[in-house]
Specification:
Blueprint lengths: L3 E10 L3 E4 L6 E11 L2 E8 L1 H5 L5 E12 L2 E5 L5 E4 L2
Parallel strand pairs: 4-6
Antiparallel strand pairs: 1-3, 1-5, 2-3, 3-4, 5-6, 5-7
Length: about 90
């Protein structure tokens, strides 16, 4: 699913882990946050500085994200064309 915009509350953020980029070989931090709204919850993938920007209880807005499935669970990704904004 492409071009997804959603606003919700961060419930939890996992500990970041290091992964190597296949394209650049550079190490990046990645974490998974649980994002909830009136319709339910979804895992949100956070990279590098996005991890530092959000904390549990923050209300955020993701614009122009996309949804994939990973290990049987739907996952919201921000990607290079999407944006994440902390509202409060």
């Amino acid at each position: 699913m492409k071009s997804v915009s959603v606003e919700g509350k961060i419930v939890e953020v996992s500990e970041p882990r290091l992964v190597r980029s296949r394209m650049t070989g550079r190490m990046n931090r990645v974490a998974t946050a649980i994002l909830t709204d009136d319709t339910g919850e979804i895992n949100l993938t956070l990279w590098n500085e996005q991890i530092d920007a959000v904390k549990p209880e923050n209300i955020i807005r993701v614009e122009n994200g996309y949804v994939t499935e990973f290990r049987g669970q739907k996952q919201l990704n921000i990607g290079r064309y999407g944006s994440l904004k902390v509202l409060k």
